[in-house]
TrEMBL record:
Source species of the chain: Streptosporangium fragile
Residue ranges occupied by any VTT domain in the UniProt entry: 38-163
Protein name per UniProt: DedA family protein
Signal peptide: none
Lineage of source species: Bacteria, Bacillati, Actinomycetota, Actinomycetes, Streptosporangiales
Entry similarity comment: Belongs to the DedA family.
Principal subcellular localization: membrane
Keywords: Cell membrane, Membrane, Transmembrane, Transmembrane helix
Length: 256
């Protein structure tokens, strides 16, 4: 009997029970050229099944490697022939928005071919790996070499981890049952701490960094000069009259 799969892997059990290796290959294949599919999750679930004796671990790993390489090459072909215009027009239907594409493209340009290997382990880059390499004009042989290496490492890591967990699935469930209460308490404490931190940061952000200056009391304000009364309208201020010289009397000359 197949072991019960933990948590988010449980919904994949019917697919593995009915289609086995075909499920592994199909989901990994379509995920690797941008289609939203649980490719990595199905690999882990199949490896757990292999550890419990329901599937062959070598067949699981070979299926995963071949499907990953094939899917990435389909993505490379899409990027090489369709270009950026194709990705910008249709990428949003597979959650590859122009913003995500540009971010991944800059990351690719910065790190070169080694990113093809690392991208296998990064959610988002794994799906857009081949498309970005094709759009950026990476030579196909170079892409195939790095892509194959990344697929082998990726499939090997998850297959070994899943197989080990499946071989000791009983002990794993016992440990989960023993410590799940403490794990939930720890997660709850982290959530509360994060909420409190966010509230404090929000309050600090709402306060002004420099308090506004308080208005001075009226008694401390400098008194202004007394204003002069304005002249009344309609009344002109007479200028002082100068004495006029008398008629008939000559004005004496002033000697120097």
């Amino acid at each position: 009997m197949a072991p019960p799969l933990p948590g988010p892997l449980a919904h994949l059990a019917p697919l593995l029970d009915q289609y086995g290796y075909l499920t592994v290959g199909a989901l990994i294949f379509v995920e690797d050229f941008g289609v939203p599919a649980p490719g990595e999750a199905i690999l882990i679930a199949a490896s757990v099944y292999a550890g419990a004796g329901q599937l062959n671990v070598a067949a699981v790993m070979v299926t995963a490697v071949l499907a990953a390489v094939a899917g990435d090459n389909v993505g490379y072909l899409i990027g090489r022939t369709g270009g950026r215009a194709f990705v910008h027009r249709w990428g949003r239907y597979v959650l590859l928005t122009p913003e995500r594409f540009h971010t991944a493209e800059r990351f690719f340009a910065r790190h070169g071919g080694k990113v093809v290997v690392v991208a296998r382990f990064v959610e988002g880059l794994r799906q857009a790996n081949g498309i970005i390499a094709g759009t950026g004009g990476m030579p196909w042989r170079r892409f195939l070499m790095f892509n194959s290496l990344g697929a082998v490492l990726w499939a090997g890591v998850w297959t070994i981890l899943g197989y080990t967990a499946g071989a000791h699935i009983g002990a794993v469930y016992d440990e989960i049952a023993r410590y799940h209460v403490y794990v939930l308490i720890a997660l709850g404490a982290l959530a509360v701490a994060f909420l409190v931190r966010s509230l404090l940061r929000h309050r600090r952000g709402g306060r002004p960094s420099h308090p506004a200056p308080e208005p001075e009391p009226a008694s401390n304000r400098p008194t202004s000069e007394p204003s002069r009364p304005a002249p009344e309208q309609g009344r002109l201020t007479p200028e002082p009259s100068r004495p006029m010289p008398e008629q008939g009397r000559p004005t004496p000359d002033v000697e120097p």
